[in-house]
């Protein structure tokens, strides 16, 4: 009896080790696909602060990074500007005169929205995957305000009109095949910000794909702010509106007096 108990107690560590080893192998077998798909994604910008002054003509940035990827992996970069209210108007010919007959006010439209890719979007991922990640202007889920009742076809027509307006202003754009990936590890692309951008924080999303599947995402930001005398006027108008109004009136009176003094009536 004593000998039997002795061997039972001695076998407990071996039994525990066997159970632990079996559990580890089972977990590795079950989750091996998850481990194989794990990835590292790191990205940054050459400049994260943009100052807008009186002679601002736009800016050019370099976005670069690294992935623990494979040859043929894809990258999508999405840059979204601050949300703003944008109005799309429809004109009608009334007795030979073109007038605004209807309009749609978009509540949460990004003031800037550009996409950069390694390949055409349709070759990187399916529409379902892009929809789940909210990549693309058609998946922005915009809210709108209008007096008219919009059926799905009307909504798409108004959305297409908004896209045309923003594309013509160089604020919305899809830049396909503009990201360069070297040896499946390093990537880079140039980002251009036009002169008509608004101030605020711009979100930068970097998304890693492999064989049409989402792997990882990293985020960074660009801060756009006014600088110099234009910043002084902007802050005065928004934070001290009463003083700005008084200053505008005084300046207008002074300008009128100066013009009368320099160019007196004969």
Structure description:
- The chain is an alpha+beta fold and 266 residues long.
- It folds into 2 domains: 1-38; 39-225, Macroglobulin (MG2) domain (Immunoglobulin-like), CATH 2.60.40.1930.
- It has 6 helices and 13 strands.
- The protein has helices spanning 2-37, 121-124, 127-132, 152-168, 228-239, 241-262, and strands at residues 41-45, 49-52, 59-67, 74-80, 83-94, 97-110, 113-117, 144-145, 172-175, 180-182, 186-193, 200-210, 213-226.
- Strands 2-13-12-4-7-9 form a 6-stranded mixed β-sheet.
- Helix 5 (228-239) crosses helix 6 (241-262).
Based on the model shown, name its key terms.
Immunoglobulin-like; 2 domains; 266 residues; disordered N terminus; alpha+beta; 6-stranded mixed β-sheet; single chain
Please name the CATH architecture of the largest domain.
Sandwich
Mean pLDDT rating: 79
Q: What integer value in Å does the Rg equal?
A: 30 Å
As a percent range, the share of helical residues equals 25-40%
User: For the terminal residues, how far apart are their CA atoms?
Assistant: 132 Å
Helix and strand composition category: alpha+beta
Shape: globular
Biggest β-sheet, characterized? Answer: 6 strands, mixed
**Tally of alpha and pi helices:** 6
CATH class of the largest domain: Mainly Beta
Full CATH superfamily name of the largest domain: Macroglobulin (MG2) domain
Q: Briefly note the CATH topology name of the largest domain.
A: Immunoglobulin-like
Uncertain runs are 1-38
- In total, the number of strands is 13
The percent range for strand residues is 35-45%
Order of helices and strands: HEEEEEEEHHEHEEEEEHH
Order of strands in the sheet with most strands: 2-13-12-4-7-9
Number of domains: 2
Regarding quaternary structure, how should these chains be classified? single chain
């Amino acid at each position: 009896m004593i000998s039997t108990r002795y061997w039972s107690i001695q076998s407990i560590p071996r039994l525990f080790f066997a159970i632990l080893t079996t559990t580890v192998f089972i977990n590795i077998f079950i989750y091996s696909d998850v481990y194989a798909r794990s990835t590292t994604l790191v990205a940054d910008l050459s400049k994260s602060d943009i100052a807008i002054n009186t002679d601002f003509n736009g800016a050019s940035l370099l976005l670069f990074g690294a992935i623990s990827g494979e040859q043929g992996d894809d990258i999508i970069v999405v840059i979204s500007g601050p949300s703003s209210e944008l109005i799309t108007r429809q004109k009608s010919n009334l007795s030979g005169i073109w007038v605004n007959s209807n309009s749609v006010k978009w509540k949460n439209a990004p003031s800037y929205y550009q996409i950069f890719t390694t390949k055409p979007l349709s070759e990187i991922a399916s529409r379902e995957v892009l929809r789940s990640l909210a990549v693309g202007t058609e998946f922005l889920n915009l809210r709108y305000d209008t007096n008219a009742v919009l059926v799905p076809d009307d909504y798409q027509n108004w959305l297409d009109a908004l896209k045309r307006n923003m594309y013509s202003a160089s604020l919305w754009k899809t830049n396909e095949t503009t990201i360069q990936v070297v040896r499946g590890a390093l990537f880079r692309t140039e980002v251009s910000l036009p002169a008509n951008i608004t101030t605020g924080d711009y979100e930068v999303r970097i998304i890693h794909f492999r064989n049409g599947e989402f792997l990882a995402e990293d985020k960074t930001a660009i801060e756009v702010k006014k600088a110099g005398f234009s910043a002084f006027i902007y802050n005065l108008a928004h934070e001290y509106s009463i003083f700005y109004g008084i200053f505008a009136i005084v300046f207008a009176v002074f300008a009128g007096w100066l013009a009368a003094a320099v160019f007196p009536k004969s």
